[in-house]
Every structure is written in C-alpha cells, then in structure tokens.
Structure prediction request, 298 residues.
Amino acid sequence: MFTIAHLSDVHLAPLPSPTMAELMGKRLSGYLSWHLNRHKIHKTHVLARITADIAAHKPDHIAFTGDLVNLALPAEFKAGAKWLKKLGNPRDVTMVPGNHDSYTPEGFAEGLKLLNPWMQGDAATAQPQFPFARYRRNIAIIGLCTGLPTPVFNASGTLGREQLERLAILLQQTRTRGFARVVMLHHPPAPGLAIPRKALTDAGDLVAVLAQHGAELVLYGHNHLHQSHVIESALGPVPCFGIPSASALPYPGHPPAAWTRYAINRTEGNWRITALTRSLNPARDRMETSREFTLGET
Prediction:
C-alpha cells in the first residue's frame, strides 16, 4: 500500500509588503483583492492545523496542487520555499504550479527556480519540464503545469499541445510498466467545472488523452471545493478529485480547509484506492474525518 496526502491552494499569509514597482500591472488588482477580502479567508493557523494533521497520518507522499503564493512576489516565493521544506523533503513532496504562482511572467520564471526541487521528475534537470514523472514504489506521480501568466481578472490555465503529447506518452509507458498513475494539475481537468475565465482552456483535449490512455487517479485544486467526477476511458474509469483550499475558513459557497489521504493498493491484479477526507471544524477549531470512501463505490 502507498498513501498520498492531497492538499491545494495554500495562498500563504501574510502577504509581504510589495514595492510600488512590484505592484505594476496585474499584481495591483490582486493586492487590492487580498486586502479587501482574501486576507479574511486564508489563515496561517488553519494551514497549521492541516499540515499538522497530515503529519500525524504519516503519508508516504504529499501531493500539492498549486497556488502556494498570491501575487508571485519574490518575497512570497522565498517564504514558500521555506514552507515547503517544513512540509517535507522534496523527495516526499510533489508540487505543480497554480495560476497564482504564475501571476506574472517574471514572477513565474523566478519562482520556478526556487521551487524546482519539488517540481521535477526523477530524471532531474536544471529547470522544470512538464509533464514530469516521479516513481515511488509502484506509483507513477505525473505533474502537469496549467498555470501561466494571464491578463487582469483572468485565472484560466492551459496545458498546450506539447504537454498533452508528452502526457500521452508517459501514461502509455507507465501503464505498460505496471505503475498506478496519479496525475496532478491545478485547474479542473474537464470542461464545465469552472467558469470560463477560471477554466482550463484545453480541458477537452486533456479529457481526450485520459479517455485514450487512462489513469488511476487525477488530483486538482483551484476551485476551493470538494469536487469529483469520472472520465470514462478505454481502460476503465478515471476518477478525478478536487479539494478545498488548505488555509481557508468557510466562506459563501465554499467549505473550510480540508485534505484527503488516498491509499493505493494492488489486489489480484487490480488497483484499489480508498480515500479519507479530513476537514477543519471551525466551531471546534479541530480536524475531523468528513468522508471515507472507496473509488468505484457509492
């Protein structure tokens, strides 16, 4: 058995004080949004509850599906790298970038350099290359990058043709080698799961790749919601799961912070995955089990 803890959308607080030059362009709208609203939602003590609870359950690996920072400021990435080190050794923690991590082109480029140890495959390179693959026992963890700089008020993501082509090859190769394939990305991996300005622009193309080559599990974030759906593939169902923000108090239309542990086991030639979701109970300021289920069972 191999266990994976999934968390997402940390949005590290507090927001550092940017210079006027750093607030040029899209960062200004994000800065105002943080101080008007988002700082009331994303709390350091909530994130501490989540990470302590994950540590108590001792997963074999941690999958973090992006939005480590808020405005892609240099100081945010430095703080983010320190937080990731506390979360776990890069060998035991895998991250993919979100739209907030790629808020600006220069922030994205500099941030990736600091976060590269958590976003590279086993065939490590000087720079991140997506998709990447990490092999842990009989599990292949495949990381995709949907985050890219976008205009103001746009939080969409895109994979692009090259990533999708390499993903198809990876899925085929890892299946042939007998791995359970866990795919990580930030944006929801199917059309209609987010409003257009927040959606994955080529979600339909991703669905086509997954429908052809299959996968045992797809993990994502972005919407700050408990979400689940199945992509039907030629090789069986592909279960996809989203998770709320790991630092959020409940706010209208969104649940409090949560994470999910997936236990992956091979039984009689078939993959069996059981899941346990742990959620913050804000009234009691403690973590509680909110759901347990086995994939394929209702």
Summary: Residues 2-294 form a domain with the Purple Acid Phosphatase; chain A, domain 2 fold (CATH 3.60.21.10).
